[in-house]
Write a structure and sequence with these properties.
single chain; about 475 residues; mainly alpha; 19 helices; about 80% helix; disordered N terminus
Length: about 475
């Protein structure tokens, strides 16, 4: 049997969900997928989630410190940086095509270390191609963006275009570490990425060269430094690269494209505010000062969902072997979210006022952002559970509905209520996102139960 046949056979046998007709029955009937939730042990969960949570908190604190430094040096001019950063992130979503999500599944199903290294090498080659394409896109888009949004950001984007090559590597590293269950390296990657960014900002500030343009380049360079440091330790191999590229694209067709559509509609929706708000401000002849207030309140509230995301990521492999999300995980998640949101509402106003007097205008935005992050955190376990079971179509549907609702909410509220309307529209949209995740999760549970019952009946009939 050829190497490709063996690898393909291993991949298809290891994950019945690749065969749409057999997926539900096999998942429900297989002993691997019938691990009772009551037997799920959290011994590994607190350790891995705690490690990733600590890294996320560290990176969040560093990112917040970077935002404070930028606010101190740039004032409300920070809005231009937030806009350009948001544009790069939204545009970058379209340059993944489901490749890294599919690659995470290929890595998760690899049977030995050498197979993992070869699959990682194939993904690295694809990341380099996507990085080059993305860099050229940012360069080409700089003039149209300036014309459409009327915010004088052309030269910011042109200067950052060469470093935009590194942007696709962030998702590549995150998905690869998730597929390999390399939580420690993922944690270090998060810390090194924001740490490199912060050090670059400090150096620029000391040299009196810190501007919105240099800050954007420093942000992208930080991704590059962390990515190459992590890759040096993962040690990708370029043997059988074409084989693993074909396997990855096979996963893209069966799973990755659905998740890609979910990502560009879902994640893009959460970032659409960084485009819609500046668009209406530009049409009104206003600058990005209000968007600077919005961005500071948003970044101050981001840590609320950190623990939820960390917990969900560390359980990717475990969820693939379970028939439901353990109740204790949901209870723990709710308690942490409520405590974090309460802390934001108590401490947040003092932080904003101490930062700079003009940032006191962001205080009314803290409540909607707290609600936004509570609902975002609530659906994280369900999102990762559906993802681990290959339910890309469900995630795509959720993201599409949420994107439509989110965009509609922004268009209806921003022209009349400004950034306050955008913040409340986001909170309502995340509530819808949570309800849709809960609906599809419960529907999948019913389908698994029925498929398992049919599988049991067929086996009893065969044995009889």
């Amino acid at each position: 049997m050829s190497t490709e046949s063996k690898a393909t056979e291993s991949l298809s046998e290891s994950k019945p969900a690749l065969d749409e007709e057999r997926s539900l029955g096999d998942i429900a009937a297989s002993p691997r997928h019938r691990v009772p939730a009551s037997l799920f042990r959290l011994g590994e969960t607190p350790r891995q989630a705690g490690m990733l949570f600590s890294a996320h908190i560290g990176s969040m604190v560093t990112a917040l410190a970077a935002s404070l430094l930028l606010a101190r040096e740039l004032g409300l001019e920070i809005g231009r940086f937030f806009f350009c950063q948001g544009f790069v992130v939204v545009a970058g979503l379209f340059f993944e095509f489901g490749i890294f999500s599919a690659g995470a599944r290929v890595l998760a199903l690899a049977e030995d270390r050498e197979s993992e290294r070869q699959a990682l090498g194939a993904l690295l080659a694809l990341a380099a191609i996507l990085g080059l394409a993305f860099s050229l896109f940012i360069l080409a888009a700089s003039v149209p963006v300036d014309y459409i949004f009327k915010q004088d950001v052309r030269w910011l984007l042109i200067g950052a275009a060469p470093f935009a090559f590194f942007h696709p590597f962030q998702l590549f590293i995150e998905q690869s570490c998730q597929g390999l269950n390399q939580i420690r390296r993922l944690s270090l990657f998060q810390l090194l990425m924001t740490g490199s960014y912060m050090l670059a900002l400090i150096a620029l500030a000391l040299a009196h060269r810190l501007t919105a343009a240099t800050a954007l380049s420093a942000y992208l360079i930080g991704i590059g430094v962390a990515s190459f440091w992590t890759l040096a330790r993962l040690r990708p191999s370029f043997k059988n690269t074409s084989l693993y590229i074909r396997l990855t694209f096979k996963e893209v067709r069966g799973y990755g494209l659905n998740l890609y559509m979910a990502r560009i509609t879902g994640t893009a929706m959460t970032r659409l505010d960084s485009l819609v708000i500046p668009y209406y401000l530009g049409r009104a002849g206003a600058g990005l000062d209000a968007f600077g207030l919005y961005g500071m309140a948003q970044r101050l509230s981001n840590p609320i969902t950190t623990m939820s995301r960390s917990l969900a990521i560390t359980r990717f492999r475990a969820f693939a072997k379970l028939s439901q999300v353990p109740g204790r995980i949901n209870r723990w998640n709710i308690i942490v979210l409520l405590m974090a949101a309460t802390g934001l509402l108590i401490v947040g106003p003092y932080v904003l006022k101490l930062l700079r007097p003009e940032f006191a205008g962001a205080v009314p935005l803290l409540l909607p952002f707290a609600l936004y992050n509570i609902f975002t955190g609530l659906f994280q376990p369900y999102n990762m559970f559906l993802s681990s079971h290959g339910r890309g179509a469900e995630l795509r549907n959720i993201a599409a509905l949420v994107a439509i609702a989110g965009f509609t909410g922004l268009v209806l509220t921003v022209p009349y209520f400004g950034v306050t309307g955008a913040a409340w529209a986001g909170a309502v949209t995340m509530a819808l996102d949570y309800l849709l995740h809960l609906y599809y999760y419960r529907r999948f549970m019913r389908t698994l139960k029925h498929a398992g019952e049919r599988g049991d009946a067929e086996r009893m009939k065969a044995e009889g």
